[in-house]
Amino acid sequence: MSLVGKKAPIFKAIAAVEGYTLDENFSLEKYIGKNEVLLFFYPKDFTFVCPTELIAFQNKMEEFEKRGVVVVGCSTDTEQTHLAWLRTPRKQGGIQGVNYPIIADTDKTIANNFGVLGGSYQMAENGQLEFVGEPVAFRGTFLIDKEGIVRHEVVNYFPIGRSVDEELRTIDAWQFSQKYGEVCPANWQSGDDTLKESHESVSEYLSANA
């Protein structure tokens, strides 16, 4: 079920931070009242699509910071694997230079609570628990506001890399709507016309863009 409009699940976990050290009690609660958070899940360290995404987020970090948005990554790998990947040069498949927090969700509870775990435990006919599906996270992305409410989510299957530019566009639309009380139509980009929530405003917009 979608988390949009609901409180983001609360958690504490170990996270690799600043590219080289560990925070033993990392929590999104530290940002409540201060920053919006873009929390994204990815399947595994040392893979193929994943480093392209993590580096793409890092390459746009200045854009997120200008918008007051904190970027946080999460996978079910261990904190030691995160640190090893962060210390590995990019030419060798690593993500050296990434400095935003990366959570180690080793017990898979965070991914499960956000609804992005690629499978679940089920009881087999022999009475044994078995995991059906993939025991890693889908490519889930969540925009969480300053009150801890999820305002946007999108989930991609494993082979489909996400668009960082689309996440920035979504953040712009959310922040514009909150600031000016207007709504953003399809394919809206920062600087485009917006709508007031009225039939007259919609009719005018549709006529102008026919």
From TrEMBL:
Organism, scientific name: Arcticibacterium luteifluviistationis
Keywords: Cytoplasm, Disulfide bond, Oxidoreductase, Peroxidase, Redox-active center
Subcellular location: Cytoplasm
Annotated family: Belongs to the peroxiredoxin family. AhpC/Prx1 subfamily.
Top-rank taxon, per record: Bacteria
Record keyword Cytoplasm present: yes
One of the GO BP terms on file: cell redox homeostasis
Positions annotated as active site in the UniProt record: 50
Protein name from the UniProt record: Thioredoxin peroxidase
Record domain Thioredoxin: where: 2-176
Gene Ontology MF annotations: thioredoxin peroxidase activity
Entry keyword Oxidoreductase: yes
